[in-house]
Design a protein that fits this description.
The protein is an alpha+beta fold. The chain has helices at residues 3-21, 112-125, 145-153, 156-160, 166-176, and strands spanning 34-50, 53-72, 78-92, 99-102, 128-132, 138-142, 190-198, 204-219, 222-236, 245-259, 264-280, 283-297, 301-302. It has one domain: Lipovitellin-phosvitin complex, beta-sheet shell regions (Roll). InterPro entries: DUF6263.
Length: 303
């Protein structure tokens, strides 16, 4: 065989080999009695114009979360107990709505924080049982009755409607989880999911998320798998919606780092910016909301 024929063949072999080498089967790995802890931080910057007055509201929420694996079956599915061990929240900018709350503080909450304290207390004092598949899919969720009762009696329940019901919480948890694809993933492979949420004032919010596997990335001395995230959001309004909302633009992008060797999520960073117009009784309110969510995994420890 002549050299001009051999070289293209060798190039093809190298290409196929390199593509095969970068293929990974991404899977969570669970060990009985293992304890996984992470910290989720959400920062929101909301700007709106009401009756010609510019209002800027900033909110920061930090949740320390713990998941204990109580059992792992023969298929690798994990029975878990999850709990928010600490909740911190602060809000500034809106007249009469500024407050700070820390569930670990010994001082009693004041002002608006006092009215929200029972809900935060219910979050930190109750555990949620669930079952997770190696793909990350949530197979089942058990919501404590005491927690549901607290939700129903809170002032926020009427505002958030179905989101504060047992079914609403279960749907939100299932739909928010990143489910890894079946089979091997090669660089550039994509998968997606779509989440629909009933809006309390009418209509349905639909968020579509696309995940793209970018292959391994060295972070310090550790090789992690990089997954890029892109999201799109729309609102399908009802004709009789009490408060019609129009999404003018939405941009969501972020990065997930997954430790495939340990079988655990290492970190998540997601930034979403939404420009919308709200019709409140004929009054048009232009609003821009920027949300940055980060999740950082703490070192795994035995129970």
């Amino acid at each position: 065989m002549k050299a001009k024929h051999i070289l293209p063949l060798l190039a093809l072999v190298v290409l196929c080999t390199s593509q095969h080498a970068t293929a990974e089967k991404l899977r969570y790995k669970f060990t009985k009695d293992a304890v996984h802890e992470n910290v989720m931080t959400m920062q929101m910057d909301m700007k709106m114009n009401v009756n010609g007055m510019d209002i800027n509201v900033k909110m920061t929420q930090v949740a320390d979360m713990k998941m204990t694996v109580t059992n792992v079956d023969s298929d690798g599915n994990a029975s878990t107990v999850q709990q928010i061990t600490r909740m911190k929240m602060s809000m500034q900018g809106a007249p009469g709505l500024s407050f700070e709350y820390d569930s670990a503080s010994k001082d009693p909450p004041q002002g608006l924080a006092a009215s929200m304290a029972p809900l935060f207390k219910a979050l930190t004092e109750n555990s949620f049982k669930g079952k997770l598949a190696p793909s990350g899919a949530i197979l089942s969720v058990e919501i404590p009755k005491e927690f549901i009762d607290k939700l129903k009696s809170s002032p926020q329940a009427a505002i958030l409607g179905n989101l504060f019901t047992e079914d609403g919480i279960k749907d939100l948890m299932r739909n928010s989880a990143m489910t890894l694809p079946d089979g091997d993933s090669a660089e550039g492979d994509e998968w997606s999911n779509s989440v629909s949420v009933k809006m309390p004032f009418g209509g349905e919010q639909v968020t579509s998320t696309t995940y793209t596997y970018r292959g391994p990335k060295m972070v310090g001395d550790k090789s992690l798998e990089q997954i890029d995230v892109m999201s799109k959001m729309t609102i399908e309004a009802d004709d009789d919606a009490q408060v019609p909302i129009v999404i003018k633009s939405h941009k969501g992008a972020g990065t997930i780092l997954f430790d495939n060797q340990a079988g655990q999520l290492q970190s998540t960073t997601l930034t979403q910016t939404t420009v919308m117009q709200i019709d409140a009784g004929g009054q048009k309110i232009d609003q821009t909301v920027k949300v940055i969510v980060t999740v950082e995994q703490k070192p795994t420890s035995p129970k």
